[in-house]
Prior knowledge:
Layout: E1 2-6, H1 13-24, E2 27-30, H2 31-41, H3 51-65, E3 70-73, H4 79-92, E4 96-102, H5 106-115, H6 128-133, E5 144-147, H7 153-170
Parallel strand pairs: 1-3, 1-4, 2-3, 4-5
Helix pairs in contact: 1-7, 2-3, 3-4
Amino acid sequence: MLIVIGGLPATGKTTLSRLLAARIGAVHVRIDTIEQAIVRSGLARHPVGPAGYVVGYALAEEHLRQGLTVIAESVNPLAVTRDAWREAGVRAGVAVAEVEVVCSDPAEHRHRVTSRSIDIPGLRPPDWEEVVEREYEPWERERVLVDTAGQAPEQSLDALLRDLERVRGSGS
């Protein structure tokens, strides 16, 4: 299965993706890691454009073809990126679940943006203004929606696991 996790910065995507990967034994493909590696190589500067996503699609598809479950985590802000993840899953012949992570409490979201630490050397996180000004197209199709506001990460994980079981059961 391909589980595509998207959402604005500091909504809890990475925390949730890591917890989910550990719980279900999946591969976690993180676009921030890929993009920062491209920048460290000297081949590009931020923003790197589509390169990180293209590498992510290829890695996800390869892992899926090996029979592994993949959690693909990125902001995933555009319909074109969402479609490309779905196409990678279709080409690999697996079910695809799309997940949007939000933090519906603006004060909590802002606090997360301004207080978080980054675990990728050299990556500069966006500030609050950059987060709220970011291009982010509305989702136009079915997805699992996880609101992390006011919840411990484990609570968000439990909700996500319940929803993923429903998706898996419906054959999406």
